[in-house]
Amino acid sequence: EYEGRSLQPIDDGYLTFEAAQTARDKGRLEDFPTLRRTPLRAKAGSCVTQMHYAKRGIITPEMEFIAIRENLGRSLECGDSSPLSVGKGKALTSQRTPNDDRSSLDHQHRGESFGASIPSFVTPEFVRDEVARGRAIIPANINHPEAEPMIIGRNFLVKINANIGNSAVLSSIDDEVE
Fold this sequence. Notes:
- By secondary structure, this protein is mostly helical.
- It has a domain at 40-87 and 117-153.
- It is 26% helix and 2% strand.
- It has 5 helices and 2 strands, in the order H-H-H-H-E-E-H.
- It has helices at 17-25, 50-55, 61-77, 124-132, 173-177, and strands at 136-137, 152-153.
- Mean pLDDT is 76; it is low at 81-93.
């Protein structure tokens, strides 16, 4: 632990202390149950990143949460809304034959895996392994326990939402690509 800066109303989305107090009095501003106002920091010579734990073979609660969430997403993708059916061996893509109608909107090309090996059931160990190899990141911060853990990597369903596009008024496609 170390002494952080003093709390400001803007930290909770308010401009003044009076506005924050009014919101607190009306019940609109509640503290997160496990909130710690004293920031945590790693001991000298140590690290508290998910990569640090993953390389040492430690599975964190964040990795377990991510595995559960990935499996829920995969069960929905497979068309089964029941979380109990996760990992029963269903493939993510539908089994199509070469004779299927190529003009159908459901038609997909086989594609190239580029070495990706995505299991049908994601385990916390798989999450740990991908993070340890540097093929995925978990942007989790010990000072923000209220944030839900997620993972960003090619073998996972969570993807980055980026604003890639051009304005009809101010730019062209060439400007956006630059």
